[in-house]
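This week, work through this protein record:
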Amino acid sequence: QVQLVESGGGLVQAGGSLRLSCAASGRTGSVDAMGWFRQAPGKEREFVAAITYSGGTRNYADFVKGRFAISRDNANNTMVLQMNNLKPEDTAVYYCARRRGVQLRTGAEEYAYWGQGTQVTVSS
């Protein structure tokens, strides 16, 4: 089992930045891909970004390209989502997720472990 805990959410004005962190614990020894998803009220959970174990390959949703950056530190079992130039439509609960596999995937059903989520609110 793997436990994931997100932190770093909050309220920010449009154009501002936030840095989300995900701390993993438990059976973290495998070389699994990880990702971030988000869910706004009344909407489906959607893919935001994913990263391979080595960090050499990253994938982003079109709506965050050029604004968000995903990274991970395997030595410390952490993953970060740096979010810049935030927009009101980025308001959502953001979730950290981990696969049982090395390939990047964008479907939520491909991820086995989830954090509890952290709220990001962007005011206009």
In short: The chain has a mean pLDDT of 96. The CA atoms of residues 4 and 45 lie 17 Å apart. The two ends are 40 Å apart (CA to CA).
